[in-house]
Amino acid sequence: MLNRSVTDDAVVLLSEHGKPIGTASRLSVHTGDTPLHLAFSSYLFDSDGRLLITRRALAKRTWPGVWTNSCCGHPSPDEDGEQAVRRRVRQELGVEIDDLTLVLPDFRYRAVDDGGVVENEICPVWVGRIDPAGVYPDPDEIAACEWVPWPDLVRSVTATPRAFSPWAALQVPQLAPVIDERGTPVIERGACEPLPDEAATVAAVDALVAAELADLTGLWHTWVPDVEVLAADLPEWLAALAALGGKRFRPRLAHWAFVAAGGRVGSAYDDMVRAAAALELLHLFALVHDDVMDESASRRGAPSAHVQAAAWHREAGADGDPEKFGRNLAILLGDLAHARATRLAASLPEPLRGTWHELCLELIAGQRADLTGAAAGRRDRVHAERIARLKSGAYSVGRPLQLGALAAGATAEQLAVLADFGAHIGRAFALRDDLLGIWGDPAVTGKPAGDDLAEGKATVILALAAESVQGDDADLLRHPERDVPGAMRALQRASIDSRVEELICDDVRLARDALAGAPLEVDGVSGLLALAATIAWRQA
Fold this sequence. Notes:
This protein is of the alpha+beta class and 540 residues long. The chain has 20 helices and 14 strands. A four-stranded mixed β-sheet has the order 7-4-11-8.
């Protein structure tokens, strides 16, 4: 129950889940350790679509003289949000509001001004109309006012966010997709509708992948109606591989980054789903080609694509070399997945398309480094970590986070925080891959134990061993493929597996630190942290 005996200058204190837990004086609550509390922001337009921006009075305790949105304030304990906005606009601007609409109901931020005072607010954002002739600013609150076209403000905040208050710098990019050029909220399938949950996003991604491959199948068979030797032609084969499922980490990371950056239902959400579907098809390409280059016999508990195609060739009693046939068909299968992934990504807006292009190049660069490094006999840690970053960390974690955040219209600060988080979880992802590639349970991973040692992969595990293991064990680990069980025992004698577990724990801790106090939505941060733990300590 809220304390009803406080003055009108009281603010509502909130739990981390946004529930009211008490009240406090506005002046006393804003310190270097400000608790989470309730506020609001408003963006007020005239009939011509110009936005009123205000410059905070020079006597203001926090962010004096900074340009910001039309009006901000705090609801009193007995007010709802709309009442609070109308009251504060009358007090500060002397004008009544028409057509008041709640646009960003869950906006939250934390910021620290030059004097060390913290703002820590859940701050719903409202949009309304006012008559410029009725505006009489309170000089104790406002030093100056300007009416600016909305598109001009969006461009200015994007180019120079530090020229504006930290809350406006975060709010404007999130408002841009849901306010048209005349300042009218665009309720596209309900701009304020709750987002689908993670499971619904994954289902939407799977449905889009299935639809894309169904369209491919119809188109394909207008060119080659018959299939020889194969049990299934390439489109059906690709669809079957996609239907096997998997952990779907990439769509899940994109989803939570979208939520964390304040994304809303509408075309932005659709862009995130499309980018995630493109990632899933690109992942199929990477798996198929990687298995060919590594000569892996199995994937997800079933024969690898090139092994399966070779078996079909032998069963048909076909002409030629079945192994060569299998490799060639698998390469085509991967190429087909890449082509359809690129088709999905082609309709994404910039800068998502640019990010997509870079992640495709990173993936190829990582595979090239893997192949040439193996040929050169490189086992050093710098080389192993570079491959892990390009082939696993960026492509599996960092770039999905970036695509989801970009789709949501993330600010530069939000993107930087998510990039820091993604770098740590990407390393944890790659390190767990290394551990599973040696000690993973074949019944769970779908690959033989010690597979990475048998293939002689340049992993961080072998790099750590090269730095510390000596004597006969060092000789054994120089060529682990010659005695995989012996190499596994040598690594455990040196406690390399424990050291890698410690590195994973360190990266998870640093990833959590990166999100602490970040300007991100609470639900998104919670989802990212939960998924980070799943990624770091997965068993497959």
